[in-house]
Structures are given as C-alpha cells and as structure tokens.
Specification:
Shape: rod-shaped
Number of helices: 2
Strand content: under 5%
Radius of gyration: 29 Å
Largest sheet: none
Order of helices and strands: HH
Structural class: mainly alpha
Distance between the termini: 60 Å
Number of strands: 0
Length: 94
C-alpha cells in the first residue's frame, strides 16, 4: 500500500530535522551540508516512484472495473435475449 502525502511529508520533515540535529544547524536560516542533498533527493525519488506506481495501479483497477461492468452487462443482455427467444418457442409447444 502506498504512503499518503502526509506520511511522505512527515518522513521528509523527520529526515531534515535529524540531519539538522546531527550537523548542528538548528537555526531556521541555516544550510545543510552538501552530503545531505543525496538523501533528500533519494527521498523525493522514492516518493515519486511510489506515487507513479500507485497511479498506475489505480488506473489498472479503474480499467478492470469498467471491463467487468461491461462483461456483466453483456451477460445480462445475453440471458435476457435467451429468455426472449425461448418465449415464442414455449408458446408454440404449449
């Protein structure tokens, strides 16, 4: 199951806070050292990959639901058609 936007935001915020504590940059206007950027980039990369995967999965689910609805409708129409064809035959044989 994919993470929500709030979960990704909390993860990134937590990561940034921990980096700031480790490097002693608690001031709001302080910059993180260069070695922190790959971790931030990787977090965004994983979040985007996860979002894309969830988007693809949702699109596939929608397609399958539409297909299943069409198949169910076709089956109902087939049954109705069979009943309609059987009625005149039943009247002739009665």
């Amino acid at each position: 199951m994919a993470r929500t936007n709030e979960e990704w935001a909390a993860l990134l915020g937590s990561t940034l806070c921990k980096m700031a504590r480790v490097y002693g940059t608690d001031a709001p206007n302080a910059y993180l050292p260069e070695e922190c950027y790959p971790v931030i980039e990787k977090t965004f990369e994983v979040a985007l990959k996860d979002a894309r995967a969830e988007g693809y999965a949702a699109a596939l689910r929608d397609l399958q639901q539409k297909r299943n609805a069409r198949v169910a409708k076709k089956q109902r129409l087939t049954v109705i058609g069979q009943v309609m064809r059987a009625l005149p035959l039943a009247r002739r044989t009665a």
